[in-house]
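Bug report (template v2)

What were you trying to do?
Predict the complex of my protein with magnesium ion.

What happened?
Run completed; filing so the output is reviewed.

Input:
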Amino acid sequence: MITVDEPRPVIDHAAVISRMIEACREAIAEREADLCDLDRAIGDGDHGTNLRRGLDALAAESRQLATMPPADALMAAGTTLVMNIGGAAGPLYGTLLLELGAALRRTSNWPNALSQAVAAVARRGKSSTGEKTLLDVLYPLSDEVIRHTPLHLLAQHVQGFAEMTIDMKAMRGRASFLGERSIGHMDPGAASCALLAATICRELTEAGIE
Ligand code: ADP
Ligand code: MG
């Protein structure tokens, strides 16, 4: 018997990349003040502004990035984030995208590439899990991607990962200067990371990528 495969919907990758960048820019612009408030409680109050600068720069390059193969686009976007976010978060978010792009040149396995990129962020920050940083979102996120959790469910889980940082004592970055007094506040980097991850998961789901 001859079987005929269902036609796969054609995915317009350039449009997906553009929409994803725009959705991230909007999400950060909307929450800029909240992210600054979180950073004011345990840091210097600039995290929302730093990310807003980074996402604005990315949006300005969106058209160009959308025409590139995903690995190249991620590497170019990583460089833009390093140059524009600044602070501690710039090199960390930048490393995530640069290493994800680099890993995708070696493998087409996205879950493996993501876990390699997260490991690179940990090396860059000399940091690990449970230290009240964006890694407390990135590690569990990467674990769920490896377990093939559907993206629409992942979008719902990530906020919970960021909330887990409330009870943690900061061991890295400015917040670590507060020691015990950092307990009781959500880490701003974990909050922005959860927001961006949820936004990206929703955009990918809407584009039909699971
Ligand atoms: P800065 O601390 O230079 O003002 P941001 O406010 O933009 O930079 O970013 C602070 C966030 O960066 C923290 O909330 C934390 O999640 C993350 N961070 C800081 N230092 C480290 C580190 N060594 N490893 C991992 N993440 C870190
Ligand atoms: Mg700060």
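What did the reviewer find?
The mean pLDDT is 95. The chain has one domain: 13-206.
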